[in-house]
Design goal:
Layout lengths: L28 H20 L3 E6 L11 E4 L2 E11 L6 E7 L12 E5 L2 E3 L2 E3 L3 H4 L2 E5 L9 E3 L13 E8 L10 E4 L2 E11 L6 E8 L11 E4 L4 E5 L2 E5 L3 H6 L2 E4 L15 E5 L2 H5 L7 E7 L11 E4 L2 E9 L2 E3 L4 E10 L11 H13 L2 E7 L7 E7 L9 E3 L2 E3 L6 H18 L2 H20 L1 H49 L5 H29 L3 H4 L7
Parallel strand pairs: 1-9, 2-8, 10-18, 11-17, 14-18, 19-27, 20-25
Antiparallel strand pairs: 1-4, 2-3, 3-4, 5-8, 6-7, 10-13, 11-12, 12-13, 14-17, 15-16, 19-23, 20-21, 21-23, 22-23, 24-25, 26-27
Length: 553
């Protein structure tokens, strides 16, 4: 019989077992690595990206976006990313990506400029850009507020912040031939250069910035003088011709020199940014500087052609001032023209300074009373330039100290030529006053009388008689020479013989000399006896009556 089947006893199918995957498929390795590298690159780019700045220039000449570099000491510190023109078309704006290390140095005092090949002030720079192209130079700063927008310099700075030395300012009436980079000399050694210039707000002077390198800045004192050395200075004096120039470079492009005048001792050391005056030349700088100045007016009635503003005013050959203004005025009272000349005197040059205006006025009056006058004189026959000379003219007409437009007026005298012309004019006037017709008639009568005398027979007979007398005198002279001269020669011979005999008689061994000596001795003894007799009679006058023996009684 068949047994029932037990389904539970039958074998069952195996159940599926789910097991987790133990590793990532190799297919995903490459994308995963790429993601990691990309993330790392993004992180690195973000963390190492430097700041982005903008620089404004007037022109983008030689600059290329994505190529032009920013360099400091020839090391790349940035790249120009884009170049754009601003809306008002006044300049261009450069977007520059800087390296992260430049971030601490991007401050308000940081400077940027374009480095190109330049030839200026006798110096050549940027020759490497002829092959590599222009780049942007940078001068970092560590002071000031952080900044991301800058205005680039159109002219590269001559002196960088890492150079040791001092900056100084010079004041001059004009710039002359000076420019950026013009040399500054000390004892003909280049000690610095011009780093900038600007017009003063009032427009009456120019401020020139210079930089003196170390150690030459230690030779700039408070009394140091600066002067221009542009071109060649030629001085023609009594010692001859002197030519001064600092160097060939300064002769061509201009320059500045400085030093302490020889008549002064160096003062205290000048501090940085001290302001000095820039003189036109060495001779002007070497002169003594005077602070007290007085202004006067002079009135000339004659031509002042050749007199210019700046012409010297001298006293006994020494410059004491200069001309500062001239004009032409019409005098309605005298209906005449006159030329007022304003001068500026430096009384310290004369060795005295009045302590106040009253004493100054008194001194001026005393000098005028003593004959102090101003006169125009020619300074050079070649140029015809005039100058004003003060001197004492005791014979000048009396004058008083007057005041016009707030200036004291000093009296003047005509020039020497004008004085001669005035004398000739007075002589001609007197000559015109003479009775020339009467003088002419008298002269004619005198000439007629002389002619009658010359042609008269009496004068002719007198001349004949005079001729006969001269002939007789000539004959007498001839006879005198024939008879008198032999006798005179004989007398001279006899006189010579007598002198020879007299010389022999007076010889030391001659008898006559011995006899003469004995006679002189006897005369001396007689003289002594007479003197004794006179003394005796003076004591005993009664001896003349009683005799010599009576004085003993």
């Amino acid at each position: 019989m068949t047994e029932p089947t037990d389904e539970s006893a039958q074998p069952s199918a195996a159940a599926p077992v789910v097991r987790p995957r133990r590793s990532i498929s190799a297919v995903w390795i490459v994308p995963l690595v790429a993601v990691l590298i990309g993330g790392w690159l993004v992180y690195k780019a973000v963390t190492e990206k430097g700041p982005t700045i903008t620089i404004a220039f007037e022109t983008a000449e030689g600059l290329v976006a994505g190529k032009t570099k920013v360099k400091f000491k020839d090391v790349e510190v940035g790249t120009v990313k884009a170049i754009e023109i601003v809306d008002d078309l006044s300049h261009v704006s450069l977007t520059v990506d800087m390296v992260i290390g430049a971030k601490p140095f991007l401050r308000e005092n940081t400077k940027f400029w374009v480095v190109r090949a330049r030839v200026a002030a006798g110096q050549v720079s940027g020759l490497g850009t002829l092959f590599s192209g222009a780049y942007i130079g940078m001068e970092p700063a560590t002071e000031g507020e952080p900044r991301r927008e800058f205005k680039g310099l159109e002219v590269p700075p001559v002196v960088t912040s890492d150079q040791v030395g001092y900056h100084f300012s010079l004041t001059a009436p004009r710039l002359g031939s000076l420019n950026y980079g013009s040399p500054v000399y000390f004892r003909q050694i280049q000690a610095g250069q011009v780093v900038g210039y600007s017009l003063d707000p009032a427009g009456k002077s120019v401020t020139i910035k210079i930089f003196i390198n170390a150690p030459y800045h230690n030779h700039v004192f408070t009394n140091t003088r600066f002067w221009e050395t542009s071109g060649v200075n030629v001085d023609l004096s009594a010692q001859g011709v002197r030519v001064d120039t600092e160097s060939f470079v300064s002769m061509m492009i201009g320059g500045i020199a400085f030093g302490v005048p020889s008549h002064e001792q160096p003062g205290a050391k000048a501090s940085e940014n001290t302001r000095f005056i820039l003189f036109d030349d060495f001779m002007t700088a070497a002169q003594r500087q005077y602070t007290i100045k007085s202004r006067y007016k002079l009135f000339f009635k004659d031509s002042v052609r050749g007199l210019e503003v700046g012409a010297p005013v001298e006293f006994q050959g020494i410059k004491v001032g200069e001309v500062i203004d001239m004009e032409l005025n019409f005098d309605p009272n005298a209906f005449d023209f006159q030329v007022p000349v304003t001068i500026e005197l430096e009384p310290q040059r004369l060795g005295f300074v009045a302590p106040n205006e009253s004493i100054k006025e008194k001194m001026d009056r005393v000098l005028i009373n003593k004959g102090l006058r101003a006169q125009l004189k020619t300074g050079s026959l070649l140029t015809g330039k005039l100058f004003i000379d003060f001197d004492f003219f005791p014979d000048a007409e009396p004058a008083t100290l007057e005041s016009v437009d707030g200036y004291d007026v000093l009296p003047t005298v005509p020039t020497t030529i004008e004085a001669i012309a005035a004398s000739l004019n007075r002589f001609m006037k007197r000559l015109d006053q003479l009775p020339m017709e009467e003088i002419g008639r008298d002269l004619q009568q005198t000439v007629a009388g002389v002619e009658r005398i010359v042609n008269s027979p009496d004068l002719k007979s007198s001349l004949d008689s005079l001729e006969k007398i001269l002939a007789e005198v000539k004959q007498l002279s001839a006879s005198t020479n024939a008879e008198t001269l032999p006798r005179l020669n004989a007398a001279l011979d006899q006189l010579g013989q007598t002198l020879i005999e007299l010389n022999g008689a007076l010889n030391a061994d001659a008898p006559l000399r011995h006899d003469l000596r004995m006679t002189l001795r006897e005369l001396a003894g007689a003289g002594r006896a007479l003197r004794e007799l006179a003394e005796f009679l003076d004591r005993h006058p009664e001896a003349l009556i009683r005799g010599k023996g009576s004085e003993a009684q």
